[in-house]
Amino acid sequence: MPLETDFPQGYEKRDFRVVGKRPVRPDGIDKVTGRARFGADTVAPGMLHGAILRSPHAHARIKSIDTAKAEALEGVKAVVTRDDFPIHDAVKEDRGLLDILVNCMAREKALYDGHAVAAVAATDKITARKALKLIEVEYEVLGHVIDEDLAMAPDAPILHDDLGYDYGKGKPSNVAGRTEIGHGDVDAGFAAADRVVERSFKTGAAHQGYIEPHACLANIGADGRGELWCCTQGHFMVRDTVTQLLGMDVSNLRVTASEIGGGFGGKTAVFIEPVAVALSRKAGKPVKIVMDRHEVFRATGPTASASLWVKVGAKADGTITAADALLKYQGGAFQGSPVDMGAMAAFACYNLENVRAVGYDIVTNRPKQAAYRAPGAPMAAFAVESVMTELADALGIDPIDFRLKNAARDHSKSSYGPTYNEIGLVETLEAAKATEHYNSPLGPNQGRGVACGFWFNFGGQTAVTLNVNLDGTAALSVGTPDIGGSRASMCAMAAEELGIDYDDIYAIIGDTASLGYNDVTDGSRATFASGLATIQAARQVKERMCARAARIWGIPEDAVKWEGGAAVPSGPNAGDHAPLSFRDIAKMAGETGGPIAGHHEISAEGAGPSFATHIVDAEIDRETGRIDVKRYTVVQDAGKAVHPAYVEGQFQGGAVQGIGWALNEEYIYSDKGVLENAGFLDYRVPVASDLPMIETVIVEKPNPGHPYGVRGVGETSIVPPMGAIANAVSAAAKVRATEIPMSPPRMLKLLRENESAAKAAE
Amino acid sequence: MVQVTLWGSLRDYTDGRNEVEVAGDNIYQILQNLGQAEPRLKPILEKGVTVSLDGQIYRQNLMQTVRPDSEVFILPKMAGG
Questions:
Q1: Are the Cβ atoms of A605 and B57 closer than 8 angstroms?
Q2: Which terminal residue of chain B has fewer beta carbons within 10 Å of its beta carbon, N or C?
Q3: Over chain A, what is the mean pLDDT?
């Protein structure tokens, strides 16, 4: 017999009372008054301060580590090195876990500038820093490689002797894996094309740039049990990873997520948490570690950098006949760059008969990459959207019309294989074309670019509890850290279901001992999945309240229904009873059967993909090469915007991060492989004065997999910006920009080369 | 039997085929039977994959029912930011 699952899906059209409004966020006052507690705000009696010694070399064998002098320093309570991180069975069997362990504390080799090699816990920060200087590490410096193309060369320094796509053939390499996506016959497709455009591109590695550095406090007792407070996008993930790395029982570690000052994917991994727990376990005291900005850049995950090639062919009428891409992503010193998702997302906006995307996962002497909003997709989209616009221009077709002609639609076959359900790409393109922005005139030295973007969106394991209070309010406990205003959305959905006020719901992030497992807040899943669970928990509360009303009235439970925030009799035999409101029933809970609560636990699926179209006007200063973004509009499908202000905020945030990635941000290394711009002065993210107001258009094409039609919105918005900006800049500069960031020196060089080429051609 | 389409690079493990017919009433059974039918795929399936069922992405809910006419794609393991 087929197994049926508890899978509460299905969009139902309805009028909303709370959802779709713009109430004040519940965490807002705490954040603007400084009352909110972030990772570094946590303290404990007797707390020690941890500090980490990091490799100054990009690639070096660690011949010895002598900690004797550090341990002898007064105030030092514990020192840990690789010897304190034995490889437990769970780690031995899982290469991914082993990589995390080695990234948190180097073993035989330091694999990048900033790689942790030892850590100290001392009574104060200054003593901890002094102790680091007393640790003697003997290195044998090895050749290093930073660039993805160079890492693939036959003579490249090899990072891992037991890794490589060719390793099965007895030959280690820096190519950890290969992926291929697609269908049809691309060669035949290109043969049928009237026009073909192909280009190569490069993208820099960009950091997520969250304002709050990583911070945690570990407190492990002599009995081996303890607690960990940290800023993370997923405290259940932290608990499970740390306990596996350190050979602890999962139940022996309780993890609480602090408020989080930005994550964007960068806090879906552990870096300092296992080190703090190991130090606390060794010292027998609480240990706090707070990274400084320099450490954040050197030793946490930026996204991958990429080398890309894209070729697209089309008929004279604009119909694409074939599309092909080669993507090479370096993800730092360990396998696992997001090239798989880059390959799947590359052409996802297009309905293509013949398509192929090949990707290579490459290791280099850089920090282990971490997820960054729609991991893997923005780089691929930069290259694909650049070529799409160049091809449209070559055919004399408006770039939005060209995309509309080839756009993925409801029930079309995606470029990565599956058939789409209802999707909103065409709606975003049509809305973009109708904007005043797209139809406005441009100034001198300005160009306009458009680009589309896609992200899968995910669900995942989710558990929530909704407790009804005696005064008619309710406390909602969710397990997905709130990185983008999701508590406001949860309160709105709970209030919508229960028929009570938004302000009567108090949402918190429950710790790992209070809720069932929750996956990380990633994949644009929190509002979708925790929202789905919240709706189901609220419906359970309503059922239980109806049961209490039935008990009070002495009628069958099925003779009571929930209507307008109250239990009311329903049906011919229910009798005549005055409605009992949420508050009435809450007040009598103790006398009618005890506390009332709703719970829901689910592996949520059904997150519909989200598509976007961006329009950007850019201006180039031909003397300096500086690019100014003059106007920017994001048009994106949200399915249903639960809290439109925060949906707009996600659109704007993604666009701004994309602008930074496109114009300024990149990791710059010396010839020794040392990161040279590990701070916000030299790694420049856009600030308000650099930017126009980001205009937004919310398209709402309901997701059939959610009762309100919600789609995740947190990631898609960073996919189109680089392509859109490159198209605008190329139009303004009258030369195709193929490398990002399009920084002033790079643009100036491109302009000069173009001028020289033009003169030579005269 | 259900027709299962594999992502392109898995052809290296199936003698060039990217479509395989396997029995199974849910995603879990499909993956188990696929691993038995194509033993070289088993380590990849155990490491983790994503399944698209009738256009819907499934990362975890392996108990989801699969019909004989379902569209089933095996895709690389996915993660978000």
A1: yes
A2: N
A3: 96
